[in-house]
Amino acid sequence: MSKRFVVISGCSGGGKSTLVAELGRRGYGIVEEPGRRVVEEERAAGGTALPWVDMEAFLRRAIDMALADRAGSTSQSGWVFFDRGLVDAASALEALTGEPILAALGAEHRYHPCVFLAPPWPEIYGTDADRRHGFDEAEAEYRRLTHAFPRLGYETVILPKAPTPARADFVLSALAELA
């Protein structure tokens, strides 16, 4: 387990990437969302491991990328903030296929015991070329994650619906209180 690796997870379109970018601007190590990077790589290569083409292949690529991200982040010092991570992809694959992958991967590759969840926030939710699912699917994803993290022994902290700088302050303050 690395208590320096902090996951920002939760609802699609809930402001996670914007928050992680803000933490990066403040000098902290960050890791961009595996799913977005998988889509970018698949599009560039003409691949089919895209969530709207082959969800299982997409999730397996996201799991591989999340594992590589964890391994590659060990050389960074201080807090490292992950825009999603292994639990997100593994819980989605388990929900899709029924394959009991979450507990095995989640137990072996731990993050900080406190995970920050971005709640559904319809006022900022939007779709784009890479996020094609609607708000109902985003809410279902959020509900799945609110069960997956505690099932693995993580404490979840819901992010406030607040401007990005205030959210970053909230995360850093919560981590300081836990230290």
From TrEMBL:
A UniProt-annotated Pfam family: AAA_28
UniProt cross-references to InterPro entries, sorted A to Z: NadR/Ttd14_AAA_dom (IPR038727), P-loop_NTPase (IPR027417)
Domain of life: Bacteria
Coiled-coil region: none
Residue ranges constituting the NadR/Ttd14 AAA domain according to the UniProt record: 6-166
Protein name: ATPase
